[in-house]
User: What shape does this take?
Amino acid sequence: MSQYQDNASSKYLTHKNASFYGCTLEEMGIILCAYAAIEIPIICIVAAMTSKYLGGFVGAFLLLFLLCCILTFFVFIKRTASFVGKLRQDRAPGFLKLRFRQVLHEQLGVNIPYVVRSGRWITRRSEK
Assistant: This one.
């Protein structure tokens, strides 16, 4: 028997801890995918235009990809993660996901699986 067996609890195994500037691992994955979706088409276009000067399309693509990866990992992700971390500070887990869905519903008309109310919620009895 282990000495830690009595103190072991499984309620913390599935908890999403803040891993980078207050963002969870899932949020960091979403940020990285968003940057990849934006940067890769731009890299392909610029590599096609500069292929004469940078050793062909593959050479230009690899050089620009390396440059964009360095910029993304060391500058853009850090700033975006700190911004997102500040947005979710002192909020309930899942707040940003719900807020993102609400914005999609309001701007693009995407259906969401919960009731949206406009106006202010009354959280206590009103005084007469």
Notes: Residues 25-91 form one domain. The helical segments are 25-49, 56-87, 95-108. The chain has a mean pLDDT of 78.
